[in-house]
Amino acid sequence: MATLIRPFTGLRPVSHEAAAVAAPPYDVLNTAEARQRAEGKANSFLHISKPEIDLPADTDPYAPAVYAKGLENLKRLVDGGVLIRDTAPHYYVYRLKMGIHVQTGFVAAASVAAYDVNRIRKHEFTRPDKEDDRVRQIEALNAQTLRSPASCDGSL
Q: What's the pTM?
C-alpha cells in the first residue's frame, strides 16, 4: 500500500512578517469585510485568498481576473521575500484559537485519488460552488491556499 501522506516544502512568511501575513480563512469573511480587513496591509494573505479585494467592487468573485490577481499577489509576496520556501520537506502543525476553543491540526501532501476512494475522510460537507472556486484558485496559483501560508509545489 502506498504512503497516504507525505511532507512537502511549503511557503511560509519570514518571522518578522508573520503577523502581517496572517489572515482569517477565505470563507469566514465576505468580500467587503476582507477588503476592509486588508486595507493598508499589503502583505495580508487576504490579497491571495480573496484577491477580488484588489479589483473593482463590481468584479465577479469567480471571474478569471480574480484568479490571475491571486497569482500576481502570491508572486509579489514570494518575489519580495515575504513568503519563503522551506529548504526541506516538512509536516506542518498549526493551532487555531477562538475564545476558549483551541484546535490543533497538521498539513501534509496527499493524493486526490486517496480522497476519491475514501482513504482520506471528508471532514465536512462542502458546497459544490465553493469546491469549484477553490479548484480554480489551485489551478491558477499552482498552490493550495486554504490556510495561510500557501503550500505550493515549487513552480512559481
A: 0.82
